[in-house]
Amino acid sequence: MKAVTWQGRRNVRVEMVPDPGIVDPTDAVVKVTTTGLCGSDLHLYEVLGPFLDAGDVLGHEPMGVVAEVGPDVARLKAGDRVVVPFNISCGTCFMCERGLHSQCETTQVREHGNGARLFGYTKLYGQVPGGQAEYLRVPFADTLPIPVPEGPPDDRFVYLSDVLPTAWQAVEYAAVPSGGSVAVLGLGPIGDMCTRIAAHRGAGTVIGIDLVPERLARAAGRGTQVFDLGQYGDQLVDAVRDATGGRGPDAVIDAVGMEAHGGGAVKAAQTLTGMLPDALATALMKKVGVDRLGALHLAIDLVRRGGTISVSGVYGGAADPLPLLTMFDKQIQLRMGQANVRRWVDDLMPLLTDADPLGVEGFATHHLPLDDAPAAYADFQAKADNTVKVLFRP
After folding, report:
1. pLDDT at 259
2. Fewest CB within 10 angstroms: 62, 122, 275, 381, which?
3. Closest CA to 224 of 188, 194, 245, 180
């Protein structure tokens, strides 16, 4: 089958790899009909190479049709239409029963002290072949895949794999009061969807902050009050406070993560780390702060006293410095974590099966064949060609 494979820093390639098959009796094999390119994939493209091997299959946002099931699978059959969550959770352990599917005790990567395995996402999370491919082996077929109805296009449901539950959890964790205010840092796919969900859930003021004119215009078109970081510069915090009664927003969502704009010496350290031999680079990244923290520091400055910061952007540094004195003094509440995809499906499904209040059918900016993946990665990383959300059609 064809699959998108990692070959090195800023180097992905579409290759022929072996077809997946049934390994455990509770497995299914899914023929992928649509699969997304995620901002988290750019961390593999740019920073996290020391935890990958050449040939690893990327991608963690797939949906498709069940091609085959193992002998112990009772809930699914060949021909069923499903979305596959990005975190691999059993659905029955202590953590899963409490809605913490990203911490699944059955699939935790204990070798690295990490949570549940993820599709297509480095040795740190199990080095499981990903979903930017024609077929995908899916474990726990009775509890992990999300059945979806026939009829509506894939664009209606594919975001259940990651974008929708990640953004929903980010807004949930932000605890925006009814009629209150929230600022979203970064208007890529997750940040953009956060603004839509926050408005849908009753936020009175939704603010979006970014540097890319097309992304700002896209969010503004749906009623978000946007601020161009490049335009406001050092005056941004004052401008946002002015827009929120002088206090700052009730909540701030950091949808940027480790590769925030700028970063100076830390950006250079990220680049250098990616060039080191794997043994040295992995040791360095496990023990040193290698994240660009501009977005998180901005969130701390922006949020009102007693407010909440919700972090959905991925960070990877083990020893990143935080301004704990400021955080303590402002009595900031901080929530974060990988999305517990299965936890939020019941909340999200009613928004997808009838009307489309979140605009998911028009959310993708690009629909491409899998063969175009190398160019799509490059454009997404460079924020070129108005690339916000790419969906591949294997």
Report:
1. 59
2. 275
3. 194
Q: What is the pLDDT of residue 261?
A: 45
Task: Give the CA distances from residue 118 to residues 67, 138, 174, 341, 364, in Å, rounded to whole numbers and listed in that order.
Answer: 21, 11, 24, 11, 23
Would you state the pLDDT for residue 262?
44
Structure tokens at 11: 């180097």
**Nearest partner of 234 among 309, 297, 184, judged by Cα:** 297
By C-alpha distance, which of 82, 171, 139 is closest to 349? 82
| DSSP structural state of residue 87 | B
Query: Cα(298)–Cα(185) distance, rounded to whole angstroms?
Result: 9
Nearest in space to 9 (alpha carbons), one of 47, 59, 60, 58: 47
Q: How is residue 299 written in tokens?
A: 């969130």
CA distance 216 to 211: 8
Across 221-243, average pLDDT? 97
Question: Which pLDDT tens digit goes with each residue over 288-302?
Answer: 555 667 888 999 999
Per-residue model confidence as pLDDT tens digits over 6-30: 999 999 999 999 999 999 999 999 9
How many residues are given for the chain?
A: 394
Q: How confident is the model at residue 268 (pLDDT cuts 50, 70, 90)?
A: very low
Distance CA 248, CA 260 (A): 21
Distance of CA 210 to the CA centre of its chain: 17
- Sign of the Cα torsion 119, 120, 121, 124 reads positive
The single-letter DSSP state of residue 271 is H
Q: What is the pLDDT of residue 269?
A: 46
- The answer on pLDDT for 327 being more than 80 is yes
Eight-class DSSP state of 91: S
| DSSP letter assigned to residue 185 | E
CA distance 268 to 282: 17
CA atoms within 13 A on the CB side of 302: 33
Radius of gyration of the chain (CA): 20
Q: What are the helix (H) ranges across 58-130? A: 94-97
181-185 and 251-254: which strand pairing? parallel
